[in-house]
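As described in the Methods, two query proteins were run sequentially through the folding procedure within a single session, without resetting any intermediate state between them. The first query and its resulting structure tokens are shown here.
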Amino acid sequence: MGDKHLREWAYPVGSNADVDGAAAEDVWAGGGVYSFPAAAGATTLVSGSAADAAAGTGARSIEVVGLLAGGVLARETVVPTGTDAVALTNAFFRILDARVRSAGSGAVNAGAITIAIGGAAAGVLPAGSGRLNAAIYTVPGDRAAYLAGGRLTAGAATAGVLTGSLLIRPSGEAWQTVDLLEVASQVSGTQALDTATGTVSLARTGHGEFEFEGMLYLAPLTDVRVSVAASVNNMVAIASLSLMLAAAF
């Protein structure tokens, strides 16, 4: 499968900067509920900045790693064309990873980069991040995965509780919740001064772990995601997963 990272371990990491209320959202940079493509489709890449281009100061090449129809792993290096969408050669079914491989003087992607399948966002690299942001994964078609666990961090300006759900969906089946976690945002001691009002606020954070006795087996083409709901508006969620990949049996 080429890249050692994908052959042996996968570490999806994502964040959602604005989780509001009890309505569940997934932990990815696109915000809201992530929509898994129903089939492979025309895949495009576009930036929010004209500086992400072949001769620009931002991202000059981006490697996209994903699954084609049937779960076949593929990778493609794309030269962005700023705010104009560029069509990829491959028609992807899932986006597993994407990273800025070369950049101009800015050293990172200048704008948020969105990868779309069939016109719908399937992955986002936030401005300045250099990589895909999503606590979401799909097991390649020729591999099984062993889910070792994950981490969830909650942040808010006020006290709040983030309820996290770790969900899996074996190919052709329904979503299943395999672990639940409540994380409270607590005073961390980090102070922020509002110069306009003269008030000092305390940033509140908290974190917890998704854990299993051993590892959870995931069959080929199983989808995985972290979903969260908040007790107060404007909470921040950050999540990561750890999966070991092996030959399917």
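Immediately afterward, the second query was submitted; its sequence and tokens are:
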Amino acid sequence: MLSVERQALIAEMAREKQLVKVAELMEKFDVSDMTVRRDLDILQKRGIIKKVYGGAVLATSVTGVNQDVNMDVRVGAFANLKREIARRAVELIEPGDVIILDAGTTTLELARMLPRYEDVVIVTNSIPIAHELNGKASSLLLAGGIVRPSTQSTIGPKTKEFLSDLRASKLFLGASSLSLKRGLMNSNLYESEIKRTMIASADQVIVLADSSKFESTSYHVFARWDSADILVSDHLLPETIRRGLGDQGVQVLTGAGQE
């Protein structure tokens, strides 16, 4: 197993259990104490966990703030729920659609599940999504701009200008964190600006987010719920959140909870 794969699994364990122990990780991955502590050091530097005596806790359980996490770690977290969401989201794409896929790990999972379309135009600012979709759409457009290494996405004035000139039928949008009261949040101001531009360019805004996004917060609100039409989430989404979003006019769709 590659170190980045092991670190992604450790991050996922921390999200699920809030606390991981060094001895537990040594046994699970059959590695030394030194290897586990090196992995925890890397994850702590990335803001995912905080080391404590004998192990580590999820950073959000200490600070309550969702940090800007490298994509190669995020892609492994809650992978089963992301696939569940992606399967449900595929059903929303119709012949003749012009869709925007926001950068993110759940939208990347959606891209992986898309069949080959003869009459669907897809626009994205994500390099991994563009690579995944090569040959799957009648037309594939990648927004140029400044490449942000941690998310492998394009940002900046050129990206914004490109997206502003578009008119899309559907936007599949990601977010770092979600709140019933505050709305949709992100951990980077430049990405938030691109997300706002995408929202303004789309007739229908579909948010893709697993239920854990309601358990954390980020420092920048880029949209309120009145900007969203649909939330596609997983089967673990609490009923209180479903009702709360329904009261704000957001349709909630969830997956079946099956692999």
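The domain at 3-63 is CATH 1.10.10.10 (Arc Repressor Mutant, subunit A). We note this only descriptively and draw no conclusion about the first query from it.
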